[in-house]
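Dock adenosine monophosphate; give full complex structure.
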Amino acid sequence: MLNLVLFGAPGSGKGTQSEKIIDKYGLHHISTGEVLRKQIKEGTELGKIADSYISKGHLIPDDLMIDILRQELKSLPKESKGVIFDGFPRTIPQAVELEKLLSENGESLTGVVGLEVPEEELVARMLKRGAETGRADDNMETILNRLKVYHNQTEPLKEHYQGKGSYIQIDGLGHVDNIFSSIAKAIDEKKK
Ligand code: AMP
């Protein structure tokens, strides 16, 4: 199976590139942000808890997030060719848990695709998305918090994965299709 983490700051293009990767490689998509937004929309208890963190740009606590991921993995289709993890892990404990969960199922992580985009561009993209889609956490105040949280809690994962030799650095600036070509080339290399 092909199990990939799509890694990058908020606004780096994880959602957009996930769709393209799914189309080409037939992977199952797990976007923890989407799972949480669905719960908020449906007004569930989990949604209410999630909203109190997301609206401030904070991360959902690891224990809760790991439970959610475990559930998502349980509902994987049996004939799955693999999974693309979009927005998970975001902390070292989440990364450790993901490795554990995969190995319990006789699986492992094929690679971590890291989309690298300069900060001004990230802010511009999120403001544009907020204006176009009305996504609630794409406002200036929350965006700045999300970036701070990214640098403090999520960016250290890059070194974690570099140490394991699984981090694939991708220039996330430019045309969507060109970025996707670089990703596909890197995935095909990893698959060999
Ligand atoms: P995303 O759609 O991936 O940008 O996620 C939107 C928001 O959902 C984040 O800013 C976090 O508040 C929350 N979230 C999504 N994934 C995670 C995760 N793996 N750990 C903690 N919080 C998360």
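Observed: The longest strand covers residues 2-8.
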